[in-house]
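[Automated response] Your request has been received and processed.

Submitted sequence:
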Amino acid sequence: MIKFLLQGLLRDKSRSHLPIMVVAVGVMLSVFMHAYITGIMNDTIEMNAAFSYGHVKVLTKGYADNMSQFPNDMALDNTDVLVANLKKQLPNIEWVERIQFGGLIDVPNDKGETVAQGPVIGIGIDLFGKETTETKRLRIHESMVEGRMPSKPSEILVSNDFAKKLGIQMGNTVTLMASTMYGGMAYQNFVVVGTVSFGVQVLDRGTIIADIQDVRDALDMDNASGEILGFFSQGYYSDKEADKAKSIFYAQQDNVSIQDEFTPILLTFREQGDMGTFVDLSHSMGAIITFVFIIAMSIVLWNAGLLGGIRRYGEFGVRLAMGETKHHVFASLLYESFFVGIIGSIIGTAFGLLFAWLLQEYGLDMSDEMKGSSMMMPTVLKARITMADYYIGFIPGIFSTLLGAALAGIGIYKRKTSQLFKELEA
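Generated structure:
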């Protein structure tokens, strides 16, 4: 029977071409959109992780309670020992030290008189380490607008918009005014050697990037860091890996007291800010896309099935008149739709993966459209092909064809045997 139905579909192209084309287009869009949304969601997660949250983060309890204020008076101390222990406990995670701080930048003229001032958010990272991956992780080279990378102590980068606003030129000396780790006032001169633009308003509004050792010297934070960020070796965030790292971290902590504000704690990415909601949304997008395309394709295929049913009205009548049961006719219709769904899903998945691969490799530059965005998102949108993309298209492809055929085939049961010969004679 299966061979007979396949031969019928191949010989009668009007029965298969339109449904297969509809299924192929729908599946192609399903696969492409799933890869596209997955790519955007994951890139957004990774960008937020790279700049602020890490895949996991170690910090003190006191710092975590007021994280948005960068309370460096609650910073981690003796971080060389702490980082060494973390590398021993969790060797599959790359650990980097960071210091985030707020302050005021003073721009003097040749006489040392203030000509402009502006608030900044500073990020202290490892710029000069031999094995540092921080500049690559933050995509600093790609974000350079003017000047060069810092090559020696006391050289910094500032956001391009901030530099224009204050009239800062390359080579200008500026003064940072901030609070030290112990609550005193800090004054430190830096030389601006480059400007950067990340395409995100929160970063471009007023950010400076300096080597972490320069920040330690300025803020009196010897062998201290505000945060220690961890990044998974596979390069992307995973709830499973984060929970595993958290379990190992606390299992090896001795005499942990949640009352001590300086006790190191570990937070996963989803436990910081509103990132938990974003991670959950990224996980549910596949189901949402699949459901939408199942409904849309079912409606289209239902209408296509109704048109096909009208064209095949006489065929069904002959088959019923010859003694074939209504159940058998209906079942054969479902079998046909199943094969149509399989063929269309294979074609659609192939084309969907092709277009997703092109977007994954080359990306879509949206930097001009996203300029000034308040949300931290990548300016080059890329898809990401996952294992789910190889099979997710078959769900709407097969289910929608079966649903459409079932809805269209209900009319078979309304045919009355007593009228069949009258219809045939007419």
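Summary generated for your ticket: The chain has two domains: 2-47+278-425, 56-236. The longest helix spans residues 13-53.
If you did not submit this request, please reply to this message.
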